Amino acid sequence: MNQAHKFHDVYQDVTNRVIEALQQGDIVWQKGWNALGLPQNLVSHKPYRGWNVFWLNFVTMVKGYKTPYYITFNQAQNLGGTIRKGEKGVRITYWATLQHQDNTRETEELATSDTEPTRTRMVPKVHTVFNYDQTEGLELPQIESMFRKDVNSIAACEDIISAMPSKPQVMNAGDQAYYQPAVDRITMPIRGLFLSDEAYYATFFHELAHSTGHSSRLNRPELMETDGFGGVNYSKEELTAELTASFLCAIAGIQHPTIQNAAAYIQGWLKALQNDKTLVFKAASHAQKAADYILNSTQD
Fold it and tell me: What is residue 58's predicted lDDT score, i.e. its pLDDT?
């Protein structure tokens, strides 16, 4: 098989999935990392899980809160604090274990038993929580303990990164992810700031995609002739980078947890281009070349 086209079916499938997601309407983009650490409960010091961690991370970012700590109204009162007047909380859902006695008698023998069987089931519970910045009279814990410690490498993702020829320099520092063409360098936040290992690699792939546009590689005009944040070239380059990242995530086997967020990111940049969805297909062509470059997949 011609190596340049060995991943064509994957590229086409991801492009189709992105288009399908865009046709569903507005999608909320979730930033993959939080400079303050993962959202967690101020009392239990346990990070939130599942959808709650993504939702509270998004709220923290949008509202500009300075801490990732959340607390219920009753918890705040029990600690001697309070919620500031006029502040509105965020509803989160968790599953609680409920045990109760089963009063159903199925046999005569069971009816004469002194004990009744206990059944356990999971039930959804809803809480309203407030960020620490919305409270008064509470002591702030050390934020350093918030960072995710269970970081792991994903072998398939590392293989993709290793395959790329003529790699840019990579620096891990700060709380922003970006690529600088002038010095051919990617800057990434430390892994512990990301909500998941998949989110880390999806962001890394995005920045690697930008680097393929450098004059020493594919010399992509949208990158090298940028017109500044929000400009046409800038927006098109973001489409290309995110589609490339989506292609690579699919090849690495982490497409499922990343594809919806990728579609949301793409949707945001399409708004700067008058919502012309045909540009997704045009960007996909550039993205295929970028992905092939990173994968070192060339024609025989």
Answer: 77
Q: What are the contacts of 72-75 at 24+ separation with CB within 8 A?
A: 72/127, 72/128, 72/129, 72/130, 73/128, 73/130, 75/41, 75/42, 75/43
Contact 43, 71 (CB under 8 A): yes
pLDDT at 25: 67
If DSSP states are collapsed to H, E and C, what string results for the chain? CCHHHCCHHHHHHHHHHHHHHHCCCCCCCCCCECCCCCCEECCCCCECCCHHHHHHHHHHHHHCCCCCEEEEHHHHHHCCCEECCCCCCEEEEEEEEEEEECCCCCCHHHHCCCCCCEEEEEEEEEEEEEEHHHEECCCCCCHHHHCCCCCCCCHHHHHHHHHCCCCCEEEECCCCCEEECCCCEEEECCHHHECCHHHHHHHHHHHHHHHHCCCCCCCCHHHHCCCCCCCHHHHHHHHHHHHHHHHHHHHHCCCCCCHHHHHHHHHHHHHHHCCCCHHHHHHHHHHHHHHHHHCCCCCC
Residue 137 amino acid letter: G
- Nearest-angstrom CA–CA distance, 4 and 18: 22
Q: How many percent of the chain have pLDDT more than 90? A: 41
Residues found in the chain: 300
Domains of the chain, by residue range, sit at: 3-32+148-294, 40-146
pLDDT tens sequence across 191-242: 888 888 999 999 999 999 999 999 999 999 999 998 887 788 999 999 999 9
Q: Residue written as tokens 């579609």? A: 263
- Spacing of C-alpha 82 from chain mean position: 32
pTM of the predicted protein model? 0.64
| Nearest alpha-carbon partner for 276 in 286, 285, 267 | 267
Highest mean pLDDT among 5-14, 167-176, 210-219, 250-259: 210-219
